[in-house]
Amino acid sequence: MREVMAYESVIAEAEKGRLEASQLELKDLRSRFNDKKESLRTSITTAFRWVFYPDESGLAVLQLPVPATKDERIVKRAVDRLSDQDYGQPKILTKMGAIYFNSKIAPRLWKDDSTSPLELGEASRRFPQWTFLPILPDREATLRACIREGLRDRLWAVAIGDNNSLKYQRLVESPEDLDSGTVLFDGSASLVKGELRDLIREELRLRDGGIVAPPPPPGPGGPPAGPVARPGGPVPPPVIQPPGIPTPRRHARVRLKVAGLGVGKTGNLQPYLFKVIQEQDPGAELSLTIDVTSSAGISEESLERRIVEAFDQLGIEVTWDATS
Q1: Taking a C-beta distance cutoff of 8 angstroms, is the pair 194, 113 a contact?
Q2: Which long-range contacts (CB under 8 A, 24 or more apart) does 248-257 make?
Q3: Fewest CB atoms within 10 Å of the CB: 16, 31, 63, 238?
Q4: What gap in Å lies between CA 254 and CA 243, rounded to an integer?
C-alpha cells in the first residue's frame, strides 16, 4: 500500500511540473504504478482466507484457496468456493436434483408428506428466510427443474387448487403436463405424495363423471388401470395403456473397487467417477481407502505435512498407517 501511494504521489507531482521527469520516465512510472496496483489488489484478495456461512449446526467455515489469481475478486471467490462440489456438500446450488431435494431438503419443509401438501410458494420463500437451507441464485427456475425431475421419477405429483379446503382442480403427474404456463409459486400449486395423491386422483375421477384417463403407470402395489363405470350407464371399453418405462433402479450404498490405478491416471477419477456421483446426489458422502504400493517409498513428512495437514484445513480427517 505504501509503494502504491508513493508512486501515486510522485506521478501527481511530475504531472503538475513540480518534479522534473521526461515523458519516458513518466511512462515507466505509470507502468510500475499499474503493476503495483494490480499486485495490491491480488494481495488484498488473498488476505481474505475464510468464508463463514450458516448451516444446520450453527456457523460453518471454509478455507479459500491461496494465493488468489490476478483476475479474482473477493465476492466471486467466496461464491465459487461455496458452489464448488469438489469439496463436499455445496452451500450455493445452481441446480438441484429431485433425489437430493427429496432426501435432504423436503424433510425440513414437509412435516408429513403422506397426508399433507407442500405449498410451493411458501417452500420457495423459505430458502432466503431459513439460512440453514442452500442458497439458490435462480430460485424459481431451479425449483421448477427439480419438480419436473421428481414428476419424471414419480416421487410426487403437483396438485393445483386450495390447500385449506383440500379442493383441487388439477393433478399433474408427468413432466410433459407441467408446461411453462403452469404457475407454481403463487399459492395455488402444491407437491403431494402417497395417500394424499391417491385421494386427490380419486376425487378428480369422481368429479369428472367417473371416466378419466388412467394415471401414469403405477408402481408396485398401485391401482391397476382399467375401465370405470359411469353411474347408471354401461361400462366403457377398457383404455389401452402402453407399458410405462420402468423407473431406473437406484442404490443407497455402492462400493466401487478400482484396481491397479497408476498415479498418473488419477486425474480421470474426477470426470469419470466423482463428477458422476455429484450429478446424482451433491450430498453423497465417500469413504476412501487408498492402498499405495511404491518401490521408491513415500516419506512420512509428505504424508503428514502435505496430505494430512492439507486435508485437515478442509475439515477432512485423514489417517494413515504403513509397512516398511
Answers
A1: yes
A2: 250/99
A3: 16
A4: 30
